[in-house]
């Protein structure tokens, strides 16, 4: 299995309220495999990360989602946190950006509360994925099958439940991005 991401650009879509480890650990995994991560957000400047409910560090935004072209990226990562995906799903540019990765059949990795943005983009119907347990009903109502597993892969869509799942999530995410379009 290919695990090198040399030359691959990976969009990390996040905003204020992102769960820090769910952003930093996958970003480190992409960099460690030779990929080029970029932080895409709904606002320029910096985003405020959290460790659970406590403010942590801020991270510089590389590009706003309004100025980002999904065609320029090989994959998409959607970190969780409660506030982050809740804000993303209300931004039309963010929703279009996410949908474009599914239309192009590019790998997408999502963790924790991140699937809220997928639901808003209308891309989970007929899919199987996992998430933070409180999203189970939301996903089922959107036509998805929810499973309680550390990591689950459905045709290039990698999903995990929580920060404790990050080692398995990062490994599968890198594998799916290395495979490319599905």
From TrEMBL:
It comes from the Bacteria. GO terms for biological process: proteolysis. PROSITE patterns: PEPTIDASE_C56_PFPI (PS51276). Keywords: Hydrolase, Protease. CDD domains: GATase1_PfpI_like. One of its GO terms (molecular function) is peptidase activity. Pfam families: DJ-1_PfpI (PF01965). Residues 8-176 form the DJ-1/PfpI domain. Belongs to the peptidase C56 family. This is Protease. It comes from Phytohabitans aurantiacus.
